[in-house]
Each structure stands twice: as structure tokens, then as C-alpha cells.
Amino acid sequence: MKKRLLSYIENQTAFLNLDALDELFTAKKLAEIFGVKRNTISHYLNQLNDEEKLVKINSRPVYYFHKAAFDQQFFHLKYTNYQSIKEIKEEQPLFEQEKDLFSLLIGYNQSLSRCIEQVKAALFYPEGGLPALITGDSGTGKSFLVKLIYQYCLENELIGENAPFVTINCAQYANNPELLTSNLFGYVKGAFTGAQEDRKGAFEAANNGVLFLDEVHRLNAEGQEKLFTFLDQGVIHRMGETNQSIPINTRIFFATTENLESSFLTTFIRRVPIQIELPSLMERNRTERLELVYSFLLAEYNKIRRPLKVTGQVLTLLTNASFKGNIGELKSSVKVTVANAFSEQKKNDTVKITIYHLPEAILNASNASIQSFVQKDVLFDEHTTLEQLTKNNQPQQQRVLTSFERILTEFQQNNEHLENCEEQLKTEVDRLFDFLLFETDRQQKHETLIYLTQYIRDTFKQMEASYQIRFDGNSVYAMSYYLFQRGNSRWFPEDPQINHLIYQLEQQIEQAYPASFHYVKRILELCQPKLDLEISSMDKIILAIYLKRADWTKEIGIPKAIIVAHGYATASSIANVANRFLNKDIFESFDMSLDVTPQQIAEEILDYTEHNDVSNGLVILVDMGSLKEIYQYFPKQITTPIVIMNNVTTPLAISMGEQLQKDLSLQQMVDQSAQQTPLDWEIVYPETNKIKALITTCLTGIGTATQISHLLEKSLPSSCPLKIFPYEYQLLKDKKQNETIFSMYDCLGIIGTANPHIEGVPYLSLEELISGKESHQLSEWLLDVMEAEENKRFNENLIRNFSLEKVIDSVTILDTEKVMREVDLFMRDLEQIADITINNAKRVALYVHVSCLIERLIRNMPIDTYEGYEQLYQCQSKTLEQIKMAFSVIEKDYSVKIPDSEIAYIFDVLFENLDETTADEEF
Ligand SMILES: Nc1ncnc2c1ncn2[C@@H]1O[C@H](COP(=O)(O)OP(=O)(O)OP(=O)(O)O)[C@@H](O)[C@H]1O
């Protein structure tokens, strides 16, 4: 009996649902099932619990389930006795905890993840949340989102149990704006003809609840004014009532399909700190669109309750079609499709849906996509779930997510110390890449994969050229497969605990493998715009661990060398012997027919330079004096120095081959060889029109040099032809002018954190540049490449971009672009009013300081007091008033009041010596 009981509970435990525990796990029900007395069953159950075979929950009623079956099916439990289900749930591992209501939105962890973060930021704002504006084309899900927001508020007790939810669509009142205003704000008796009694409006109805104003741009001037009063002061006035204001406490959400630049919206959005932009259907990736199609089909199945067999072609066409009315129109197209099929096959057990049931417009719009990747047929019936459909669809994506989870769990279990789990993480990453590279269907040569690989290969080459490194050959494939298989999905989890883990791990990886981390970051940045990728921290972590393992090697920049000779095999046999002797493939050979012209040879060589990396120079050994002149046929804009040597023989080739490997400049190589054998040679440097370039460098490594070059690139006017190259400091310092870049480019100067002292190339420290002490130097270097006006803009952009990252790091809810624009205005006004010029260093400080200040004020965070304000005011009242005046735009736009203590701090920033944090430290 005891055995049978245990085995029965074991089988049932697999179906256990912690959220709705079945009666079946109680002594009472089990006694009924086994037809014995309840006491007998209780006795056995307790025995089994003592033996640690069953878990007991001492709630009312008491539940028992099978420990091992539970551990296997769900998660590992530490004990066999618990007081409540809640206690058990607390042991649930991080990644299996419940999803919140927003997970009902398709795309909640992909294209909508940022939107949901913003919604939560608005909702959890202290003292009743912040208003938010939701923008997006028709049918992108604005109303749907707000309905969920309301449910979410109820679930999280942000509003009371019976709190109201009021929706007003302003577009419905297009012909009667007064009616709209009265419906929103209410009116008092006599406010207009027909107003026979006082009446509440939507604002009052939504008090203590949620108010949703759709198509808000339709409000007329009066309505707008009333709305602004509410946003600024939290009160409304009914129509016809000017004296009495009614305080309203409602969580307000607005939506509009209108362009934000329109005149009403610009004044309006200044008062609405959070703007949430929903992507159009086409901006969502294919996986997400397919998920939407699945969910709508599933909903139709649930309505008609007849299995639906949908062909892959239908799924493909629905997924790829573009709809003006976005998700809303996709949803109704699915409805029409199912209705067409259903009415035709009313009597069939299964309704088969083929392309003939689709609305015609879809067929017309999607012709082009018929040949592309086609889905498999899907049967929707009582066993179908959305989760299973989407899971089946992307085993690789799932595999990537599983690795993410394992890595984070491992890291967490090792007390968040990378050094304790480095090996385990590497093994996990290796396993993931093995799976992605070798266990996925390689036959299916997906166009996207081919495109990805091609682009990533080019990016690697670009990286190799600028950093003088060489990546392991497999890295290109590994990276392409990874990005392809993980799909367009991005993984930005919401759980703060997981985000904390990711943040910690990313920081530690960056510290432990700085070079790999920087290369990965740079490669991803370069790929991002072309490949339409959303990069997450986990991508950087995984790829940095992988690249670290594959490791990259430093390329010794040796020039390419070729031998050109007349005759059937002259060149190739010399190259052959020399390469064998040198034990390395140094030379390539060009065997030429006897009647070839020098011009044809030149063309061959140019063709070679186009297909090979000759950025370290090219050495050409030729067999006839006349051929030495071939360079005349090279176009003027060759970009690499070329040495041409005459009378090639095997000893000459061997001697040159040896010199080539010594990491010397071309000139030094020739000089050395010439000491051994008399030589006839010519060196051709790129002539005129060399492209102008700046070099950035940093003592701490190429990562920072790249950041500096980024900063400069971003700040350059778009028309400027200047190139910027990040460089290893040590390399510049060791090789000096011999570094190839100086012969290939016209290097105007070096900007960085340490001077490599290169003769003839001026140096400017980043700190001097940012502080403005020496920014005129940069202007002088750039005289030839840009006009004075452009130069000025460059300097301003530089300071702005330099500050941007810090502002991004410092503010959480403000729109960074907007707040920076506001600070720009503040500084401009201040310069005018106080007749001062704010230097670069102070600009940087003000960008950050004022942005944080606004955020603190909006968030009602405590503001520091300023000691000695009175004394300061006595002697500096004029300047303090001027600063106050310059703040008026910010005060108006953000509806905040800048306290006197803050004005005093700004005074300090402007007129006291700045805290000497240097630009280098900031980097
Ligand atoms: N993320 C989503 N996941 C699942 N269904 C969605 C999602 N977004 C929108 N929908 C569905 O799409 C339909 C259209 O959405 P909704 O009416 O909210 O769009 P809207 O932006 O308010 O449109 P309009 O501006 O035309 O009023 C809704 O029926 C909703 O069920």
C-alpha cells in the first residue's frame, strides 16, 4: 500500500501546479482514491515524509508531493517540510520566477523591452507616478498597452481595488471640441447654453485611478490650457469655473499618432517627462511578427474551437506582409482569413487554411517574399500553446538563452567573482559555440548568414588593419553564427537582480580581458548599423569570453613582397627556393610572357594590391632594368610605399626576405641589403593628395585610443574628409616615423594621453583639448580641412559628445538629447545675459551638473543646502540673479523651480576653480 501510494504521488507530482495545488495531494482525497481511512493514509504520508521521500506543506489543508519527481520536473528543493507554498516559491531559481503582466505583450523582451521599462519608471515614480506620452502609428498597440498598464496597477496595488479606468478618444470629438473639453473637465451650470446643472468630467471620474487620453493632439486651445494647468499644478477647473480648482490625483497616459514636431505637441511634451515610442509592425523582427501571427491564429482557434491547419506559405505571407494599420490590421487580416476558410469548410473536422483564403491585398503586397524562407505547416488545436510554437521555431535561440542563464547562475553561485568561475564560463561558452557551429543545419545556407559572414569578415579586416592584430580564422564564423543564431532577439531582462549580475559580470570581464572586450565592443559597434542589431551586454560578455579563448595575435607588420620575371617559371622558381630557404611564404610570383609590356605588368601589380592588404608596404623584385620604371604606370593615388628592385636573383630574394622579417622601415631594409650586394632600386612613396589623418593614442591601450577616436569622429562635420586612426602607444613610440601610417597619410597630429614624440608630428593632450587650454592648436591643424565655422562647431560638438556619455550615465528618466539641448540653451542665455564666455571645462561640468539637477528636482529628491548663501548673495547678487534668469527656460520647460542653493552651486562651477578631474581620468 505504502509503495503504491508513493508511486501514485510520484506520477501526479509531474503535473503539479504551485499556483493552484490540486486537492489530489491532500490526505483526504488520497484516502478516497485508495479507499482507505484517512488516518491510515496520513500515517503512511508522514512516514514517507520522515523518510524524505515526500515533501510536506503544513498549510491548511496539508499537502504532500514527491520530492525527487518535483526536483526533476521543476527545481531543486532544499527541505522536505515547508509552512507555505510561498516558502517553496522563494526557493525557485532566478530564471523561473513568474513573469509579470507585461509579458502578455508580444515583444515584451525584445522590441518593447525599453518601452516597458519606461512604463514602469513612470508608474513607480514616487507620489503617484509620472505622466507619459505613448506615440506610434495606428494599430501599434497603444490602447492595448494602456489597458495592461491599468491591470498592472491593480495587480501591484498602485491603485485601489475599485479604482476607475477612464478612456477618452479625443479624435471622436473632431467636430465638437467644446464637447470634448466639457467631457474631460466637466462644467458648471450656465457654462454654456444647455448646461443646466454642474457635471463632472473624465478627470474627476478618473480620480485615484488611470486616465487615458487617446489622440490628445486633437484638444483645442481651451482644452490644452486646462490640461497644462493640470500637468503643472495637479488641479483642474471645470468649464465656466475660474475660481475653484479641483485637485486631481490620477495616473495619466496620453497617446498620439501625430508627429511630435507639431506645434501643440512641442509645448505639451515639455511637460510630459516620459515618451514611449511603440515600433511599427515592420520595425519588429520576423520572429516577433510570426509570434503575433501565431497568437492571433490561436485566438481564432479558441473562438471556433475547430482545429486549424495552416500552411507554411500562409504563415510566411502573413509574417512578411506590411500593413499600414500595423498589428491591428494584421489581427483583422488573420480574422478574415480564418473566416474565409471556415465559411467554405463548415462541415470539415479540421479547417485547412491556404493562401486562397488570404485577403487579396496580402498576396499582392507579399509577392516578393514567396521564395524566401518558408515556415512549416502548423496545426492549431487544443494542445497548441504559443510558448511551444515559438520555442519550436528557434532551438538555437533557446540554446543561446540557456547559455546566458547558465553563465549568470554560475557567476552568481560563485559569489559574483569572475576569477572563481572563469573556467566554467569558458567551458559553457565553448559548448555554446560548438553547438552553434557544428550542430546546426549547415546545409541550410541562409542568405542572412552569408551576408552576416561577409560583413563580419570585412569588419574584422578593418579592425586588423587599424589595430595591427590578426584574429583567429575561426572567429569570423563564430561571431557570424552567434549573431545569426541568436536572431534579432535581444535579451534585456527586467529583473533588477539579473541586471545587477549582468552589470557585475560585464565590468569584471572588461577588467579581466580588456583587449578582447574592446575589440568585441568595437566590432559590434561597426556591425550594428549595417546588420540591424541590438547589442546587449550579454553579447559582449559571451563574445569577449570566446575571443579571449580564440585569442588574437599581434601581426608583425611585414610588407608584402612579389617577384616579377619574364619566362615560363623564372619568378615562381626563385620565389619557391627563397620561401623554402626562409621557411615562410614571403614571396608571391608573377611569371610573365616574354612580350609583355611594362604597362601590362603594372596593371597586374595594381590588381594584386587591390586584393591584398599592402598597408605595410610592397616590395617588387623585377628581372630587367627597364621594368624598374613600371611605377610610372601606377596611378598617382597609390596609398602605400613601394620598393622596386632590379636584377632579381635567388640570393637577392633570400637576403630581402630576411630583411623583410626584421620589422624595419622600407628604407632601412634597402640600406641593409645594399650593404651586402650592390643594388639597383627605387623607392616610391605615395605622392600628392595624401589623405589627411589624425592619430589617437593612449598609454593604457588601444581601447581608450579607440574611444578618443570615436569621440572625434562623432564630432566631425559630416563633409570633412579627415581620417582618424587609433594607435597603440608603444608601437608609435618604438617605430616613430617608420610606422607605415606616416608614409601613407598626411598625419596632421596626434591626440592622446601620452606623447610618443614623433618628429614633425605635433601632439596635443586630450586634457588640454577638452579643457580648452589648447583647443586652438587643433583648429590650426585643421585649417586646411575645414572652414572656421565648421571648426567652431567641431569644438562644440566635441565638448557636447564628451559630456554626453557622462550625462547618460548620470540621468535615468530624462531624455538625454532633450536635456542636453536645454543645457545648451541655458549656457547660451547665460553667456549673453552675463556677458561671459564659458570655457570647455566648465561646459562639461555644466552639462552634467545641470542635467542631474533637473532630474533631482523632477524626482523630488532632496537638494543640498548651501552654506553661506547669504554672504555670497551680498557680494554677488547681480551674477546670481543673472544665473537665475538664464534658468528661466529650463524652469518653464520642466515645470521646476531651481532653489537658491543650486544657483549658488552653479556660481561655484562657473567662477571657482574646477575640481581638477582631468579628461584622461574621465576616459
Ligand atoms: N504587443 C502586442 N502583443 C499582442 N497583441 C497586440 C500587441 N500590440 C497590439 N496588439 C493587438 O493589436 C490590436 C491593435 O492594438 P491597439 O488598438 O492597441 O493599437 P493602437 O495603437 O491603439 O491603434 P489606434 O492608434 O489605431 O487606436 C489590439 O487588438 C491588440 O490586441
TrEMBL record:
<feature type="domain" description="PRD">
    <location>
        <begin position="814"/>
        <end position="920"/>
    </location>
</feature>
<dbReference type="InterPro" id="IPR002078">
    <property type="entry name" value="Sigma_54_int"/>
</dbReference>
<protein>
    <submittedName>
        <fullName>Sigma-54-dependent transcriptional regulator</fullName>
    </submittedName>
</protein>
<dbReference type="InterPro" id="IPR036390">
    <property type="entry name" value="WH_DNA-bd_sf"/>
</dbReference>
<dbReference type="InterPro" id="IPR027417">
    <property type="entry name" value="P-loop_NTPase"/>
</dbReference>
<keyword id="KW-0067">ATP-binding</keyword>
<dbReference type="InterPro" id="IPR036662">
    <property type="entry name" value="PTS_EIIA_man-typ_sf"/>
</dbReference>
<dbReference type="Pfam" id="PF00874">
    <property type="entry name" value="PRD"/>
</dbReference>
<dbReference type="InterPro" id="IPR036634">
    <property type="entry name" value="PRD_sf"/>
</dbReference>
<keyword id="KW-0547">Nucleotide-binding</keyword>
<dbReference type="Pfam" id="PF00158">
    <property type="entry name" value="Sigma54_activat"/>
</dbReference>
<feature type="domain" description="PRD">
    <location>
        <begin position="447"/>
        <end position="557"/>
    </location>
</feature>
<feature type="domain" description="Sigma-54 factor interaction">
    <location>
        <begin position="105"/>
        <end position="339"/>
    </location>
</feature>
<feature type="domain" description="PTS EIIA type-4">
    <location>
        <begin position="558"/>
        <end position="691"/>
    </location>
</feature>
<dbReference type="InterPro" id="IPR004701">
    <property type="entry name" value="PTS_EIIA_man-typ"/>
</dbReference>
<dbReference type="InterPro" id="IPR003593">
    <property type="entry name" value="AAA+_ATPase"/>
</dbReference>
<keyword id="KW-0238">DNA-binding</keyword>
<keyword id="KW-0808">Transferase</keyword>
<dbReference type="InterPro" id="IPR011608">
    <property type="entry name" value="PRD"/>
</dbReference>
<dbReference type="Pfam" id="PF03610">
    <property type="entry name" value="EIIA-man"/>
</dbReference>
